[in-house]
Design brief:
Layout: E1 5-8, E2 15-22, H1 26-34, H2 36-42, E3 48-55, E4 62-69, E5 74-85, E6 89-96, E7 104-113, E8 116-124, H3 128-136, H4 139-156
Antiparallel strand pairs: 1-2, 2-8, 3-4, 4-5, 5-6, 6-7, 7-8
Helix pairs in contact: 1-2
């Protein structure tokens, strides 16, 4: 299976959809998204170390990750789970501590595709400007590198 990531960023709308194919079943890809021991191994760019401070994968549960660079700079991200369907879907909020009040909502769908998974993430922002700012800040680069790292983790199992 060729692992590819696509980004659909429709002009004039405050949403975007990312898709990525993984050579692992949906249950395995889902588990990598809700297990703190796995999150620290793939979430975000390689140049940053991720620490999981909270990960309560249940409706109403919270999550909080902090990333640290070699220069000591930290980046804190957090949110809440609104729906958790094991092996099927997650709905969660996402907020960067450095930009308080800019909350987005994502639905991650883990879709069986042969022996693999199509992960479709639909994200809604408060405005087109907020979406465009996140895309412009390098979000795609972080997502792509994280997906590559997740491929590596999934290949170990």
């Amino acid at each position: 299976m060729t692992e590819t990531t696509t980004f659909d960023v429709p002009p004039g709308r405050p949403d975007m959809t990312m898709t990525r194919r993984f050579a692992a079943p949906p249950s395995r890809v889902f588990e990598a998204h809700v297990d703190p021991d796995q999150i620290v191994r793939w979430w975000g760019p390689r140049r940053l170390t991720t620490v999981v401070h909270a990960l309560e994968a249940r409706p109403g549960g919270r999550w909080h990750f902090v990333q640290r660079g070699a220069d000591g700079a930290t980046h804190s991200f957090f949110g809440f789970f609104h729906a958790v369907e094991p092996g099927v879907a997650l709905v969660q909020t996402f907020e960067y501590e450095g930009a308080p009040g800019h909350v987005l909502v994502s639905r991650l769908e883990f879709l069986a595709e042969g022996a693999g998974t199509l992960l479709r993430t639909t994200t809604v922002f408060f405005s087109v400007a907020e979406r465009d700012a996140m895309v412009g800040a390098g979000m795609e680069e972080g997502v792509l590198e994280g997906a590559e790292r997740l491929d590596e983790l999934l290949a170990e199992a």
